[in-house]
Design brief:
The chain is an all-alpha fold. The chain folds into two domains: 410 residues, Growth Hormone, Chain: A; 146 residues, no CATH class. It is built from 26 helices and no strands. The longest helix has 52 residues. The chain is globular, with a radius of gyration of 26 Å. 47% of the residues are buried.
């Protein structure tokens, strides 16, 4: 890549990583802080429903919710979120990460206005629908941005900070709701989406998305901002690595090359070589060969030992590479544009087929499973009914203030996650927090079975035994925060770029379908199994999750995006290789 001399001092051009570590990390922290304000908006608007259920789940009030309405009201946002989650994967590809995040602050503002002015239950339901769909739209741009702007050694810490903002938003809502009416709390919350929109304006777009759009200069400027407001020469190597990663990750390299080269200042042939008989192997072709179990023995060239199906596939690649190897001056505009005349439906079908590749399918199954276990493991089920559940455990504190304690424990859990994930890794954190969730749920079930009596027979509030549920709920909140954040950390980094948006949207959709089922069925589950049986059920689910994570969760902490992609593809390739040898 040729760099235009801007007249910057030589010392600045050669500084590389000689800039201070603080200056290098600061812009990433600022960018993540602004983006995480969207998470804060999400939590504030989402947990308004908990305050509403606690106040309106009373038939004696004029504006009230019966059991059926309360269960639907608590679960409705989860039901609507998959619609937004699936759409978000395509929205983020079209608009980009930053503009998508800016756009979705508006419906969060609308939902707060609707709740604060709602004249009827119907308007409250409409507000919850808006919240649910907007939370779904948030997932893909949020997780894609987290994974794409951070350096590998900081990715988990900075991406994990989203949980900190989420827990703080829940804490803030419960704190305000403890001494304000829920309408007043919603009115105060309208300030947050407006502030978020203003904070997002100076934040740069994701560099790799800009590369995908052929905007190399903009990608270079974004990297300079994110790496400490440095000279372009400092990020030259990283920019080239992103370009290479994008070229090998996308399905049609010729499409990108023709688009990208029109934005370059020099017309140069691509680095791949093709002599008509032998094609030098690219990472994408290596994957194709390995999947067919016929990897060439010389490691560099495709030989006659490849299967017929693989030869056909490689021949198709050859035509694309032949176009790439032509200098831009020799390429006609018609040739450049011809490859783009593919129907949107064909591209959509092709993107769905990519989901079946091992690099995407294996992490997708892993994330689906963790979402299923964590969603059915307790905390997700009781969040809409938190105040009422704490009241049934006969806490010595006012139930609303008990919910503040539980939310504060979740905030501490998020802080612990951020502080420890680099040192402990995701695997140890996942196993330990799941074990803690299992123990706390089983003990809560035991307490409900042995200690809880009808309210009229309850002991004195000074009885120290009555503080046990608060301690156990605090432990559950602490541990489940880290447990539930684990799959989101994986979503931010484990999917290849070519499927990241769609796979992230599908992952979020699966989580919210599980959460809807868990919250919608909580009241009926409690009636069937009673309070103690419900928490024993949660404990068993967490035990099953612990066994699954032990055998299936790899360690991805500190690895680059390409290393993580190779990690999930490795087992499949090894199995195919074994089959071919057999």
């Amino acid at each position: 890549m040729s760099m235009v001399d801007t007249g910057a001092p030589l010392s600045e051009k050669k500084q590389g990583r000689t800039i201070s570590r603080f200056r290098e990390i600061l812009p990433q922290v600022l960018a993540m802080g602004a983006v995480n304000c969207v998470v804060l908006d999400m939590a504030v608007t989402f947990f308004l429903s908990t305050l509403i259920i606690a106040d309106l789940h009373d038939p004696s009030k004029e504006l009230s919710l019966d059991d059926t309405q309360a269960s639907w009201f608590g679960g409705l946002p989860y039901l609507c979120q998959p619609v937004g989650s699936i759409a978000s994967g395509f929205l983020v590809t079209w608009l980009g990460r930053k503009r998508s995040l800016m756009l979705i602050t508006l419906p969060y503002l609308l939902s707060c206005v609707l709740v604060s002015t709602a004249p009827s239950v119907s308007v409250l339901f409409i507000a919850n629908v808006v919240v649910g769909m907007t939370v779904g739209l948030t997932e893909a741009p949020l997780n894609s941005y987290f994974g794409e702007i951070c350096e590998p050694e900081f990715r988990s810490v900075l991406a994990g900070s989203a949980s900190l903002y989420y827990q703080f938003g829940m804490f803030l809502v419960f704190l305000l709701g403890s001494f304000m009416h829920w309408r007043t709390t919603a009115a105060v919350s309208t300030v947050m989406p407006i502030l978020t929109l203003l904070l997002l304006i100076p934040v740069p777009e994701s560099p790799i998305w800009l590369i995908e759009q052929g905007r190399r200069k903009d990608a270079e400027a974004a990297l300079c901002w994110l790496r400490g407001w440095v000279h372009p020469s400092v990020v030259e190597k990283e920019l080239e690595e992103l370009v290479t990663y994008h070229r090998t990750a996308t399905m049609k390299p010729a499409d990108y090359t023709s688009k990208f080269k029109r934005n370059s200042k020099e017309d140069k042939p691509c680095m791949q070589t093709f002599d008509g008989n032998k094609l030098h192997e690219t990472p994408e072709q290596t994957s194709l060969l390995t999947q067919n179990g016929k990897q060439s023995t010389n490691g560099d060239l495709i030989t006659k030992e490849t299967t017929e199906n693989t030869q056909v596939t490689i021949q198709r690649k050859n035509s694309a590479l032949a176009l790439e190897n032509c200098p831009l001056s020799e390429m006609t505009l018609e040739a450049c544009e011809k490859s783009k005349h593919v129907s949107k439906w064909s591209k959509f079908v092709a993107s769905l087929k990519l989901l079946l590749e091992p690099e995407t399918l294996r992490p997708l199954i892993l994330v689906f499973a963790i979402f299923l276990f964590s969603g059915m493991g307790g905390m997700m089920s009781i969040k809409p009914f938190m105040v009422e559940v704490l009241q049934r455990f006969q806490s010595p504190l006012d139930p609303k203030w008990s919910s503040v304690v539980v939310a504060a424990s979740g905030f501490v859990g998020s802080t612990f996650l951020i502080a420890s994930v680099r040192g402990l890794g995701k695997r140890i954190l996942g196993l330990s927090t799941t074990a803690a969730c299992a123990v706390s749920c089983l003990l809560l079930g035991l307490y409900a079975s042995l200690v809880i009596r009808p309210v009229s027979d309850a002991g004195e509030s000074s009885n120290p035994v009555r503080w046990i549920p608060i301690v156990l709920f605090a432990l559950l909140s602490f541990a489940s925060t880290a447990q539930c954040q684990l799959p989101w950390l994986l979503v931010a980094e484990c999917f290849p770029f070519r499927t990241r948006g769609v796979a992230g949207g599908l992952s979020a959709a699966s989580m919210y379908l599980v959460a809807f089922f868990a919250s919608k069925t909580y009241l009926s589950t409690e009636k069937s199994l009673h309070l103690h049986g419900t928490f024993w059920f949660f404990g068993v689910i967490n035990c099953i999750c612990l066994v699954y994570l032990y055998f299936q969760l790899p360690e991805t902490e500190g690895k680059s995006l390409q290393e993580i992609e190779s990690l999930f593809a490795r087992k499949r390739r090894r199995n195919l290789s074994d089959e071919s040898l057999g």
